[in-house]
Amino acid sequence: MAETRSPSFLVGGVAGSKRGTGAVKEKDDQQAIFQKKSNMGPSPTWIWDPAAALANARHEFGEHGGVNMSIEASATFTVMEPETMRRMFAGELGPDRDFFIYSRHFNPTVLNLGRLMAALEGTEAAYCTASGMSAISSVLLQLCSSGGHIVASTVLYGGTHALLTHFFPRACNITTTFVDIGDVSAVKNAIVEGKTTVLYLESMSNPTLRVANIPELSKVAHEKGVKVVVDNTFAPMVLSPARLGADVVVHSISKFISGGADVIAGAVCGPAWLVNSMMDLHQGALMLLGPTMNAKVAFELSERIPHLGLRMKEHCARALAFATRLKKLGLKVIYPGLEDHPQHHLLKSMANKDYGFGGLLCLDMETEERANRLMNILQNHSQFGFMAVSLGYYETLMSCSGSSTSSEMSSEEQALAGISPGLVRMSVGYVGTLEQKWSQLEKALSVLQ
Prior knowledge:
The chain is of the alpha/beta class.
């Protein structure tokens, strides 16, 4: 059975025993899978660092004492006594005491990854899903009902934009007002009291790399009783939205957190009451929609999160170096680490110390034709990177956002979001040496000119 290396102030109690029901002590809130802890705030003498929080999280050992946890690949779980199953379905016994029913509900290996994600984001709880989009759609469906209203940023990942613009109104009768989240008064005016339930935004926008003023936006939303949901896919370790005032943080784990471009996964990180409600047998969006993560995927990801901080520092350092040099060459570079970026000082004020300014940069080549020429040279002649969507891979990945990851948006919507037809989004990798990769990038630019 799993052991506890050190107490965690986040989700998850010490594993119990399934040998019988008599020894199990009842808790006041029998329905709660995740128990709220009171000491979520940072110590006055301790600067928040997600790597330190991860190191303090519960560590699972293997069934036979292995330093790595065992993979619980079972779809269903046995009980020792018939009465135990009745109590599990009644909500009296649950994963907090090591009682499991079925892996669509909870799986021990996936639950452990959830603990790590909660530690990473500084939230009470987290639940890991089969994709980033399933995490986004599930949390919004849990927080919004038919006839509900969402206020969202004009600049969002194309799939999220399509979900809010087309799918939700048609299938769920949930409407969205898109606003420039840089204009706090516009956000405030877009909130309809008694109807708006969610303010949705990205910590760093995809693909324009605008940085959201999370503390100010959270304050405005909370004054009107609105929950703040932040997609932090672009900035794990760099930003901690829940520590800045957001209620819920969502991730596409497929990106930087995975780092290998080999799995699709997502996560919802937030308060215990929300994750509990999303797993409710009768009303839970995660429980009933079933975007279940495979336990083998959860194991793989649990092994990668411990070195996420090291990887993010290198992604960010390379991105800053390239952005600085490209700017000196006279190119139109968008990167929050540059002092002339509109939200550079805002990001510095919110960012966790020593993790940099993000691993993505954008080059505005003005036209799609010039953008495609550059990417073709970079991949097929100088071997700088690959033309591919996604991000967070150890190789540099490049795409022309307007015709790829933002193609769900109309040309008018792209213009409103500030997405140029020739905007090249680069997820900067860390293979090779910095000077080696810079030489390849320089060579491509000289050929282009």
